[in-house]
Design goal:
Layout lengths: L1 E2 L2 H21 L6 E7 L3 H17 L2 E7 L5 H12 L6 E4 L9 H7 L11 H8 L8 H12 L8 E5 L6 H9 L8 E5 L6 H5 L4 E4 L17 E4 L3 E4 L7 E4 L4 H5 L4 E2 L6 H20 L1
Parallel strand pairs: 1-11, 2-3, 2-4, 5-6, 5-7, 7-8, 8-11
Antiparallel strand pairs: 9-10
Helix pairs in contact: 1-10, 6-7, 6-10
């Protein structure tokens, strides 16, 4: 059984990006610049954005963190986005989700310049991705594709079941895995909360991508021997015996499924680290397209 080590692969990617950035600086150019807008004080968002800032520093990017109060209005946020759209010294930026309830997320995502949308959430980028044109691919699906490719997981002609249909993970990974190219050419089934007899689908799947958000939902009896399991889920589960008072669980019952699988991503340390690495890769790509 192969553990698809996202932590190690993400580190390899960062080293590659770091080398490229070093060459950019030696040529006399400024380094790539990534910004993040964080509205409010959501704990998970703070942790995630902090990790992005540290990763930028590590690879040699310039990074800017824009903190806005929970009470920030939609108009103020839109003004800030327009400011970033016009900033020639900025290659890419993200608006950290979720946003406060008084702000329309769709309106915010539409306001981002697609050329700086390194999260890959703008409809323009999503559409271009679906049409196999140059675009920014959402970081989590992009990370999954990179893991499958680097670990040489055979996907061509295989049956892949994606459980979950979000615009951030489920929908884009289903498109990417059905396209031509490395880690593509799979026959993809998208399952979701209304799918009947899910086990009959997963039991026949060569590859399963779990992006449901229900801890340890996928059990050993739901998969066939030798399947590849990609676990995108990450949920804090209360645990009085743990110093933090909780443990992180994926959508897969890891120990029992790993005993049957040919390859599996752990949680934590699987897809999560890849997401930040691919965000850096998208930012470097934005810089290269601009220059």
């Amino acid at each position: 059984m192969t553990v698809l080590d996202g932590k190690k692969t993400a580190q390899d990617l960062k080293e590659e990006i770091k080398t490229t950035v070093s060459e950019i600086k030696k040529s006399g150019q400024r380094p790539p610049h990534l910004a993040a807008i964080l509205v409010g004080n959501d704990g998970a968002s703070l942790t995630y954005v902090g990790s992005k800032v540290r990763s930028c520093e590590y690879v040699g990017f310039d990074s800017t963190l824009i903190r806005l109060d929970e009470s920030t209005t939609e108009e103020i946020l839109l003004d800030k986005i327009e400011e970033l759209n016009q900033d020639d010294q900025l290659d890419g930026y993200i608006v950290q989700l979720p946003l406060p309830k008084n702000i329309d997320e769709e309106k915010i995502l539409l306001a981002i310049d697609p050329k700086k949308d390194v999260d890959g959430f703008h409809p323009s980028n999503f559409g271009r991705m679906a049409l196999e044109m140059d675009s920014f691919i959402p970081a989590t699906p992009y990370g999954i594709m990179e893991l499958l490719e680097r670990y040489k997981i055979e996907t061509s002609g295989k049956h892949c079941v994606v459980v979950g249909r979000s615009h951030i993970v489920g929908r884009p990974i289903s498109i990417l895995m059905s396209q031509k190219g490395p880690a593509g050419n799979a026959t993809v089934t998208v399952a979701h909360s209304r799918t009947q007899n899910l086990t009959s689908l997963t039991k026949n799947a060569d590859i399963i991508v779990m992006a449901l958000g229900i801890p340890e939902y996928l059990t050993a009896e739901m998969i066939k021997e030798g399947a590849t399991i990609i676990d995108v889920g990450i949920t804090r589960v209360a645990d009085e015996n743990h110093p933090k008072g909780y443990v992180i669980k994926g959508d897969v019952a890891y120990d029992e499924v790993a005993a049957k699988a040919a390859a599996i991503t752990p949680v934590p340390g699987g897809v999560g680290p890849m997401t930040i690495a691919m965000l850096l890769k998208n930012t470097l790509l934005a810089f290269q397209r601009k220059n």
